Amino acid sequence: MSKLLIKNGRYINPKTNTDEILDILVQNGKITDLKKEINLNGSTEIINAKGLWVLPGLIDIHCHLRDPGQPEKETIESGTKSAAKGGFTSICPMANTKPPIDTAALVEYVNKTNQKHGAVNIFQIAAVSKGLMQEELTPFEELKAAGAVGFSDDGKPIENLSLLRHALEYVQMFDMNIISHAEDSKLCCGGAVHEGHYSLKLGIPGIPSASETVCVAREIELVRQTKGKIHFAHVSTKEAVKLIQRAQNEGLRVTAEVTPHHLVLTDEDIQDFSTNKKMNPPLRSQEDRDALIKGVLDGTIGVFATDHAPHTFEEKSRSIVEAPFGIIGFETALPIYLEVFYHSERLSPLDFVKKLTVSPASVLNIPRGSISLGDIADISVIDPDVNWTYDVNDTFSKSRNSPFHTRKLKGKAIYTIVNGEVVFKDKN
Amino acid sequence: MIKKETEEIKINITKPEDINIEILEKRDFKWNKKSLLSTRDLLKEEIDLILITAKSFSEILTRAVKKVPTLRGKVIINLFYENSTRTRSSFELAGKYLSGDVTNFSVSTSSVKKGETLQDTAQTLIQMGADAVIIRHQHSGIPFQLAKLMPENISLINAGDGTNEHPTQALLDLYTIKEALDIVSGRKIAIVGDILHSRVARSNIWLLQKLGMDIHVCGPPTLLPKSFSDYGVKVHWNLNDAIKDADIVMALRLQMERQSKGLIPSLDEYHRLFGLDHEKIKLAKKNVKLLHPGPVNRGVEVTSELADDLNYSLINKQVANGVAVRMALLYLLIFAAGK
Lengths: 428, 339
Prior knowledge:
The structure holds two protein chains of two kinds. Chain A contains 13 helices and 19 strands. By secondary structure, chain A is α/β, with parallel strands linked by helices. In chain A, the strands form five sheets. In chain A, strands 1, 2, 3, 4, 5, 17, 18 and 19 form an eight-stranded mixed sheet that branches. Chain A has a four-stranded parallel sheet with strand order 11-14-15-16. Chain A is globular, with a radius of gyration of 21 Å. By secondary structure, chain B is of the alpha/beta class. In chain B, 42% of the residues lie in helices and 13% in strands. Chain B is built from 13 helices and nine strands. The relative contact order of chain B is 0.15. The A-B interface holds A 197, 200-205, 272-273, 275, 313-314, 317-322 and B 112, 115, 117-119, 137, 139-142, 144-145, 161-165, 196-197, 199, 202, 225, 227-228, 230-231.
């Protein structure tokens, strides 16, 4: 296998708390040398990373690849290519495909398909309940053995609290996480946007904050009861942040993630009735947005995710009430997180990178997230400062449902390297 | 016989056009609107012009031959995703009285389910040569989404979108109110009923605020969240407080499904607390007038006796005024814009 030398980059590895200019040598998919100046002769591919950040490959623990079952929206091939373009080297697709990922055979299908056609690593999330029907648990052990790294019925909340309790207990045998899509399906019933000033003004059925908050509260109590651990996906309300923080202070094993859109958009933005601003949980109020940013800064929310959720143009052409929830996000996540936390000087580069690497890896025990000597060479080389304009038609995703089309962004992936191979290279 | 009719039409031709040209010349601003989606962005001058134009057109409705050629050769399409007899007929007649060619394009929800997108529908309307499209949809926002897909020279009129807006209803309500009150600024209107789910209430609130009316809204908290006061209206959960000394009381139609969804315990209780009758309306000003967008649930939001009492009720006038106001809007939006 050929050698790859990344020279003069700003090496940022939160795992070892390192942030300095270093050269990295990659051989046979691993990092084999790491020092101030590496000079080699012969057939070595060299990346000049001067002015760029050289990071552990970014990890997204929340996305939807729609494979198997909905190739008109996305496939493992198109989804992983889009992830690579966004700088991600490992992604964790949710189980709500058609059929849902609830057997070892389906996890194997995903992994085999990814080996053949995929661009980045997939660490699959399996369903908590068979068929997402909330009646019986899926075979956790088999699923884990096949490669599943966590369990979630994401897309829908688990209303059957008895089942959730047992899931939280049973999964402790494997020291794994249940990922919660926290919402009360009766309270949010029929809603399309955040219930508040703008839903009332525009007469759009609302999803109250309480829909998320009551669910977070009751699930925290189940964690207390079972001593299990839960990871709250896409937290969107200030009240949920408060509850999670309190639970963490009490020593409960509760973690949380945020999405880019909840940090830069609010319910004020829905006034044009654009269905590309319809997602679940919905864009909340300015106060909620501020609380999420604060939650990231004080450590309550440890993970940056995307909740990449492709839908077809036809589905998104319906009314805001009828259109499905969700937006694509792989290729805009990094610049938006940079905008909110790095360019605003809220987080240091080390702390920033942590939320996209070490933290998500630790939540799901994913054996990635660091680029020390001997580690697998999953590397993201990014330019944090380049200005560009997002054109959704350039996406590698099969879908175009983004609210960020034409948005001016700062920072993007230049090289995405998985197992020592360059899987994406920015054309400029 | 034929000759006589032609003559009569000829006489009719000049009159309203003269009136309107006069109106258009008098104004000190230019009417530029091609579409009406909301009452929120209407200027005060525009509101005045709509009402004056409607006044001049209302005369046509009293004639033996109700037709003027103003919109001859113009194609008006009623695009109704939601059933409606009243509003659709009102627009249809308004268009026909102005000699426009009006056609009804009813989109069954099933064809939408089969994959017809709004983009397809927009293309169809453009290819059919529509000059104006009147759209009603059961969900909020569709007229605004359609507007982005249509060229600006096609007029778009929102005839009710979900629980968002129904601007032509609000304008005909205002026209009716202005007939009853010489001055509207500072006068009190109480809007009673399911405010939360009412596009009529919303369009009226945005419109009547511009004219300085003192707006009070009333209903049970499940149908009227307190935060409605954010929009500059006074919120009441008690009917007596709401209608006390009101100049105008507007009752809204209560959708029967509100009970099955658990928003109100029973229609009886609703009627007891929020239904209008001769006794309760005594709290309002002596010559208070009653409006209702129709169709009335008799015995629920208002008693039959009160709805039919012409000392109070302007409900029939609203229907007639609706045609005149819609004629004015079709004329202004299709014909006068930019002139």
